[in-house]
Specification:
With 227 residues, the protein is mostly helical. The chain has two domains: 96 residues, Serine Threonine Protein Phosphatase 5, Tetratricopeptide repeat (Alpha Horseshoe), CATH 1.25.40; 90 residues, no CATH class. 29% of the residues are buried.
Length: 227
């Protein structure tokens, strides 16, 4: 699935100016005035800069993913896959540095989790997501993507709990998770990855029931209008 992440508002960088003043020199060879020193960044400002750069790198990975999805040449797909993973690896480094400088930046923790998860490093991703949600329990982006990491580890019960939480509070994110669940279910039917067949079928039955309920409630919301 081409994963969708809502646009994350860029963290405002403030408190520093890069102003250069021309050097004044007297024709007679007299005194000259040099430019004042450039103000250094605070740790929080540097963290914000690293976070925003990490987002730009992540976007490059997304563009490579789009090309990968449209390619049918196996050799080309292999190269694109490698380039995409390399970009996610670079993003990981940026986000790690950002949270080291500003441990309270929950968005950076979540983005770190996202990049780690896209590299298949699910356990590490969960650590990052857990930290993001410890800082902001209502950050539904992290709730949804953490649930996808749960799926990667076959932690079905945890993924279902996350879906129910999102269904009650953020239907857009719940729908995104439901799409990921559908793709996961199809993939596990091809390769169980150690999941017991009984567990898989039980999840399939739950998924079918939730699908019907989601369709019904979506119709009710549509009929009732904005009020």
């Amino acid at each position: 699935m081409k994963e969708l992440m809502s646009k994350v508002a860029a963290v405002t960088l403030f408190g520093f100016l890069f102003a250069a003043f021309p050097q004044e020199t007297e024709a007679s060879g007299g005194s000259s005035t040099s430019a004042p020193p450039v103000a250094s960044l605070t740790p929080r400002e540097e963290a914000a800069q690293l976070y925003n750069e990490g987002l730009r790198i992540r976007d490059k990975a997304w563009k490579l993913e789009e090309k990968l999805a449209g390619s049918t040449d196996e050799g080309d797909r292999g190269k694109l896959q490698g380039k995409m993973e390399k970009q996610f690896g670079k993003a990981v480094k940026n986000f790690r540095r950002a949270v080291k400088l500003n441990p309270e930046m929950f968005q950076a923790h979540s983005s770190l989790g996202y990049s780690l998860r896209r590299l298949g490093r699910y356990e590490e991703a969960l650590v990052a997501y857990d930290r993001a949600l410890a800082l902001n329990p209502y950050y539904t982006e992290a709730i949804e993507y953490r649930a996808e990491a749960y799926l990667g580890l076959n932690r079905i019960a945890d993924a279902k709990k996350a879906y129910m939480l999102l269904f009650a509070g953020d239907r857009t994110r719940a729908d995104e998770l439901f799409e990921a669940m559908e793709e996961w279910l199809e993939a596990r039917r091809v390769d169980s990855s150690g999941l017991e067949s009984a567990e898989l079928e039980a999840f399939a039955a739950w998924f079918e029931g939730r699908s019907e309920l989601a369709a019904q409630t979506a119709q009710i919301r549509s009929d009732s209008g904005p009020w």
